[in-house]
Design brief:
This protein is of the alpha+beta class and 216 residues long. The protein is built from 7 helices and 13 strands. The N and C termini lie far apart (35 Å).
Length: 216
């Protein structure tokens, strides 16, 4: 199996990590969480000669899903995920963008072509990812885990030195901690991850040093 590669394009005023997973040999890949600045995402795809097969969403917050519809229209690919519990968030993206004073039309409501649930798998080429439903930051949040290469995209569940916010609509602090304890930490200390904002890390480093995880 050829190596899984990842590129990050920070998008929107929230500096969200729009991530592109791709195969280094075939150049096939997927875009995860295109929150906005779609022109920049398309430029990155073109400059690297990538063939995007789908758009994957971790959850429905506007900085992660606001550009998904525009990117779908530009690429002609399906939007996959998150869990259906995030439908209300996806239906309020435009309202939330207006609340934050973001440019009209820059972020659009969206509904995926396929919802995901715990235990599903998604793939492109030879690269298969397990799907875990991890509510707490958002009700329908999911993470994507590639067991073969011990790598995950955890969205806004877990960060380098922190965890996701739970003061937004649908957030639940205890539920988030339960998701981390039951779904993320068991993936294994050696697993590296990309998160929704800021630098990535390894699960073991966070289990040992992240102050929010002590006692889980």
């Amino acid at each position: 199996m050829s190596m899984l590669q990842a590129g990050i394009i920070p998008v929107t005023a929230f500096q969200q990590n729009c991530t592109i997973f791709f195969d280094q040999d075939t150049k096939e890949g997927v875009v995860i969480d295109p929150g906005g600045d779609v022109a920049n995402i398309l430029q990155g795809i073109e400059q690297n000669g990538l063939k995007i097969k789908a758009i994957w969403l971790t959850h429905g917050h506007l900085d992660h899903a606001g550009g998904a519809k525009e990117l779908k229209e530009a690429l002609g690919v399906d939007i996959i995920g998150p869990h259906e519990d995030d439908l209300p968030l996806l239906q309020r993206i435009e309202t939330q963008a207006e609340k934050y004073g973001l440019p009209a039309g820059g972020m659009r409501n969206v509904e995926p072509d396929r919802w995901l649930k715990d235990g599903d798998t998604v793939s492109f080429g030879e690269h298969v990812f397990e799907v875990y439903h991890t509510p707490g930051h958002a009700p329908g949040h999911v993470i994507y885990f590639n067991r073969a290469q011990k790598f995950a995209h955890v969205g806004d569940v877990l960060f380098n030195g922190s965890i996701g916010r739970t003061d937004l609509p649908g957030g639940n602090h205890q539920q988030l901690l339960d998701s981390i304890r039951d779904k993320v930490l068991p993936l294994g200390d050696e697993v590296g991850f990309i998160c929704g904002h800021g630098p990535g890390s390894r699960i073991g480093d966070e289990r040992r040093g992240n102050p929010y995880l002590q006692g889980l």
